[in-house]
Here is the input.
Amino acid sequence: MNRWIKTGMLVGAILMAAILVGCKGDTGPAGPAGTATCMNCHTDNEAMADYIRPLQLQYEASLHATGTTYLRSESSCSGCHTTEGYQQYVAAPLVTPPVVEDPTHIGCFACHAPHSNQSFAMRQTSATPFKVGGGTYDKQESNTCAMCHQVRVPSPDFNAAGFVSDSMSSSRFGGHHGPQSNVLSGHGLWTFGGTFSATHSHNSIADGCVTCHMAAKPAGSLAGNHTFAVAYMSGTSERINSKGCIGCHSSDMPSDAVALTFVDDAKHEFLAALNDTLAVRLTTLGLLKKNTDGSYSPQNNRRVSSTGPRVLWTKDELGAIFNYGALLEDRSGSVHNPTYAWAALRATLNWANAQPTP
Ligand code: HEC
Ligand code: HEC
Ligand code: HEC
Ligand code: HEC
Ligand code: HEC
Ligand code: HEC
Here is the structure.
């Protein structure tokens, strides 16, 4: 170790000791042993800086860091949209975390607890409970992702025991925006009394999301690792980072450009069936309405006649709307789990086609 690094570490150690005293007073882990552990991460030493700085830069480019939904810090939202709420959500997954007064975006200290653990182990380590349909998601480090990227309990909750029918008043009715862990593992969509197969190699990936979304990065820090991105732009061309895929797709994905065509073909076929066939049928049945921008949303607040009481919706009607929303908001166009996504789409369409046309 050269002199400069040594001196840098010493100055750093003194600084860190000062921070310790300042922040933690008598309760902090003070003294030479405490600062020595701090210096495992907080040094000017290039080896350490090389290790963490690139991850910070990647992280700053991710939507977790740049998105603005951390401002949704009210009680029912803070658990998935803020670092502070998420820490409480992990500590007690079945309790709704409180409103966070000074919210910050999902940062290092959401997913990691380096100061408690003295390492970058995940904060959430156990299997993650699903909010809809019971059971858990259990795929190593990606249990962290499933905490937030899963469907929420809809209102009205048509899965509830004894549910027969209810009115529905929100044009945003559904499972909310992040159903990816449900689709990947084949869990939580409405089955119309049957069962759907979820058997697909993508569901057997041991650490789930992490293999594909945190794979080694392509040139530059445009995707992979702590950007959490699979899709990226190379100049003006879209690409798919195939580093996490080639363990299985070695022959059919020779480059990121080819990986894109592979993904696009699968997405295109699925989204066409979802929007051009299923959504059209659900609109004919009066369950969805088409918006001016071409998207569809639930036909909320329907009444029996213009002044009559609200229409009451059955489980299957609400389930059909729920499935349409989840398959769209999964945003992989079936790629997360083609077997399950197609099974859910077909079952929803079969049910819709069996209903009398009004
Ligand atoms: C396992 C690695 C690791 C160890 C060990 C570690 N830290 Fe940190 N520390 C971090 C990371 C990562 C950040 C956040 C960096 C970022 O925001 O990009 C951080 C941030 C901080 C900050 C900035 C304030 C904040 O909350 O963001 C302080 C102060 C700090 N650490 C003090 C300490 C002290 C004191 C110790 C020893 C008791 C220590 N750290 C040990 C990784 C570590
Ligand atoms: C604390 C909750 C939380 C955790 C944990 C979490 N996410 Fe997210 N994720 C979000 C939210 C919220 C957004 C949208 C942020 C915004 O728009 O402000 C998001 C955005 C994303 C996006 C970007 C989507 C886009 O439009 O480009 C990807 C990809 C993603 N997350 C993947 C992951 C993966 C992989 C993991 C696990 C390693 C993970 N997330 C863990 C809440 C979370
Ligand atoms: C169980 C976790 C969870 C809870 C609770 C939650 N969200 Fe989200 N929300 C997410 C995730 C994950 C995303 C990002 C999904 C993606 O990018 O695919 C997201 C995305 C969003 C977006 C961005 C949508 C878009 O189209 O860009 C908004 C706005 C939002 N949430 C608002 C809220 C509000 C308001 C609440 C509380 C009423 C809330 N969320 C509660 C997980 C959650
Ligand atoms: C959304 C969740 C999430 C956030 C936020 C997050 N990480 Fe991570 N981090 C992970 C996951 C998941 C892994 C495990 C990845 C793996 O096994 O490949 C990980 C692994 C790591 C590792 C070990 C990597 C290795 O190659 O040994 C370090 C160091 C790290 N993160 C630092 C950070 C820092 C610094 C920040 C903030 C700038 C941060 N992380 C923010 C999810 C997150
Ligand atoms: C088999 C690889 C694979 C796995 C496993 C995987 N994803 Fe994806 N994911 C993709 C691909 C491919 C896309 C589509 C990218 C595109 O075309 O924009 C995607 C899209 C997304 C998107 C939409 C934003 C974007 O980047 O396009 C989010 C958010 C997301 N995935 C989150 C997750 C989460 C959370 C998990 C774990 C529950 C997960 N994914 C597991 C491959 C994967
Ligand atoms: C664990 C191995 C494994 C990994 C990792 C993996 N795949 Fe796959 N993937 C498969 C297998 C096996 C199939 C099924 C081939 C078939 O359809 O019979 C498949 C099918 C697909 C399909 C076709 C879907 C359809 O049926 O139309 C796409 C697209 C795809 N994978 C994209 C990806 C991408 C992109 C990644 C990386 C981000 C990835 N896969 C990672 C094993 C894997």
The pocket of heme C (ligand 2) is lined by residues 63-64, 67-69, 80-81, 86, 106, 110-111, 142, 144-145, 147-149, 209-210, 213, 228-229 (CB under 6 Å). The two ends are 80 Å apart (CA to CA). The first strand starts at residue 128 and ends at 129. Residues 52 and 218 are 18 Å apart (CA to CA).
